[in-house]
TrEMBL record:
PANTHER family: 2-HYDROXYACID DEHYDROGENASE-RELATED, GLYOXYLATE REDUCTASE_HYDROXYPYRUVATE REDUCTASE
Molecular function per GO: glyoxylate reductase (NADPH) activity; hydroxypyruvate reductase (NADH) activity; NAD binding; NADPH binding; protein homodimerization activity
GO biological process: glyoxylate metabolic process
Organism in which the protein naturally occurs: Macaca fascicularis (Crab-eating macaque)
Pfam family for this entry, one: 2-Hacid_dh_C
Coiled coil residues, start to end: none
Protein name: Glyoxylate reductase/hydroxypyruvate reductase
PROSITE patterns: D_2_HYDROXYACID_DH_3
Lineage: Eukaryota, Metazoa, Chordata, Craniata, Vertebrata
Residue ranges of domain D-isomer specific 2-hydroxyacid dehydrogenase NAD-binding in the record: 122-300
GO cellular component terms listed in the entry, alphabetical order: catalytic complex; cytosol
Length: 333
C-alpha cells in the first residue's frame, strides 16, 4: 500500500464551510491505495517529526514553510516518488537533489494569482494612503479636526508603476491597477515579454531604470539566485524620495537592513511587505518600529476559495504522481 504524508494542514484564520485541510485529507483518505499520515496542527511540523513521518513514504505533501532538503530526502529513502507542495513558490525544495533522485514535483500555480494580485493592490493602497496610521489616530485621539496636509499620502492617478517580474501575478496586478489612472507601466525581468506587456503598454527597462523612474514599485518575481538581494542599498538609492515600495514575492529578494535605512532616513516614502525574512518576523525587528512600513503575515493567497482550490490541486497532484499519471500541475525539472 502506498503511503502519503501531509506535513500539516494549511492555516485558516477564520472558520469556513469547507476547511481546506479537511477537504484535502478526505480526498487522500478516500483513495483505496493510500495510507495517510497527517501532521494535524497549524504549527509547523518539527524536523524530527517530519523525518520520522516521511520515512518509507511514497509521496509527500508539504507547505512552503516545510524545508525539504537533502536531510529530509535521505530520511524518506528510495520509496519517495512524488512531492506535492501547496504553493506556487518552490524555493523551499532542494530541486537539484530532488531531480537527481528522479522525484516528481507538483505545485499550485495560477489558482492563487487573483487572490495574490488583490492583496498586492490592497497593500499598495494601504501603504501609500497611510491607512494604518490613520486608523491609529482615530483610536488614540489624534483625530481632532480636519487639517489640510494631515496624513496626506500618494495617489495612483497619472503615476508610473514599476513591476519587477511581469509573470502571471505581475500581469494581474497591472490589470487591477490600470483603472486607477496609472499613466505608465514599467517592468523588468530576465527578458522582454512584449505580448504580455502589450495589454498595459508596459515598457521593458533595466532594474536601475525602473527604480529611478517609478512612483510605485511592486516586486512580484520568483526567488532565484539572480533575484536574491535584488532590492538593496543601490536599488533604494535610485528610487524617488516620494516612491512607495511593495514586495509580495519572497522576503529574500529584499535586503531588509538596507530597506530599513532607506525608510528611516526618508530616502523613500514608504514600504508594504507581505513577505519577510524570516517568517514570522521577530516582534523586535527594526522595520516594525517604522510608521511608514506596513507588514502583513504572508497572506497573499488567504481567501477561503483560493486555499480550498490550492488544497484540492495539491491533493490531485499527489495522487496522480502516486499513480504514475500526468499531474494537473507538474513542475518540470
Amino acid at each position: 500500500m502506498q503511503q502519503a504524508i501531509e506535513s500539516r494542514p494549511p492555516p485558516e484564520a477564520h472558520p469556513a464551510p469547507h476547511r481546506p485541510s479537511l477537504q484535502l485529507a478526505a480526498r487522500l483518505a478516500a483513495q483505496p491505495f493510500c495510507e495517510v499520515e497527517q501532521w494535524d496542527s497549524d504549527e509547523p511540523i518539527p524536523i524530527k517529526e517530519l523525518e520520522r513521518g516521511v520515512a518509507g513514504a511514497h509521496g509527500l505533501l508539504c507547505l512552503l514553510s516545510d524545508r525539504v532538503d537533502k536531510r529530509i530526502l535521505d530520511a524518506a529513502g528510495a520509496n519517495l516518488k512524488v512531492i506535492s507542495t501547496l504553493s506556487v513558490g518552490v524555493d523551499h525544495l532542494a530541486l537539484d537533489e530532488i531531480k537527481k533522485r528522479g522525484i516528481r514535483v507538483g505545485y499550485t500555480p495560477d489558482v492563487l494569482t487573483d487572490a495574490t494580485a488583490e492583496l498586492a493592490v490592497s497593500l499598495l493602497l494601504t501603504t501609500c494612503r497611510r491607512l494604518p496610521e490613520a486608523i491609529e489616530e482615530v483610536k488614540n485621539g489624534g483625530w481632532t479636526s480636519w487639517k489640510p496636509l494631515w496624513l496626506c499620502g500618494y495617489g495612483l492617478t497619472q503615476s508610473t508603476v514599476g513591476i519587477v517580474g511581469l509573470g502571471r501575478i505581475g500581469q494581474a496586478i497591472a490589470r487591477r491597477l490600470k483603472p486607477f489612472g496609472v499613466q505608465r507601466f514599467l517592468y523588468t525581468g530576465r527578458q522582454p515579454r512584449p505580448e504580455e506587456a502589450a495589454e498595459f503598454q508596459a515598457e521593458f527597462v533595466s532594474t536601475p531604470e525602473l527604480a529611478a523612474q517609478s512612483d510605485f514599485i511592486v516586486v512580484a518575481c520568483s526567488l532565484t539566485p539572480a533575484t536574491k538581494g535584488l532590492c538593496n542599498k543601490d536599488f533604494f538609492q535610485k528610487m524617488k524620495e516620494t516612491a512607495v515600495f511593495v514586495n509580495i514575492s519572497r522576503g529574500d529578494v529584499v535586503n531588509q537592513d538596507d530597506l530599513y535605512q532607506a525608510l528611516a532616513s526618508g530616502q523613500i516614502a514608504a514600504a508594504g511587505l507581505d513577505v519577510t525574512t524570516p517568517e514570522p518576523l521577530p516582534t523586535n525587528h527594526p522595520l516594525l518600529t517604522l510608521k511608514n512600513c506596513v507588514i502583513l503575515p504572508h497572506i497573499g493567497s488567504a481567501t477561503h476559495r483560493t486555499r480550498n482550490t490550492m488544497s484540492m490541486l495539491a491533493a490531485n497532484n499527489l495522487l496522480a504522481g502516486l499513480r504514475g499519471e500526468p499531474m494537473p500541475s507538474e513542475l518540470m525539472l
